[in-house]
Amino acid sequence: MASGKSLMLGVFFGSVVGASVSLLTTPNSGEELRTKVKDQSDRLRDIAQQIREDGLDLKNQLSKTSKEGAALLRDLSEDIKVSVESWKETIEPHQENLQEHLRQIEESIKELEDKVKENPKQEV
């Protein structure tokens, strides 16, 4: 936010310096000069007010967006947690069955290896 503040100050002071230089280098009567100074002052005040309003709008929008993002992340994490729990419940009844199949496969491989070691020249 510091860079935004610096930008606003730069725009404001640049406008003031530019307006002052243009007013002082232009030959005018006193009344014309006062009118121009007043007009420039009014324009600068309007610009500063608009910058301030835009900055507040941006701040409010960022705050709102961050709150919505946090709420979405909470919802998403809760959905993921529910999905993982559901997956665990779905897998649990089959887990023992899968382990038994793996043991059978390991035993079959072991038996095949033993047969190959006993009879290396014969086909299995």
TrEMBL record:
<dbReference type="InterPro" id="IPR024623">
    <property type="entry name" value="YtxH"/>
</dbReference>
<dbReference type="InterPro" id="IPR052928">
    <property type="entry name" value="Desiccation-related_membrane"/>
</dbReference>
<feature type="coiled-coil region">
    <location>
        <begin position="95"/>
        <end position="122"/>
    </location>
</feature>
<dbReference type="Pfam" id="PF12732">
    <property type="entry name" value="YtxH"/>
</dbReference>
<keyword id="KW-0175">Coiled coil</keyword>
<protein>
    <submittedName>
        <fullName>YtxH domain-containing protein</fullName>
    </submittedName>
</protein>
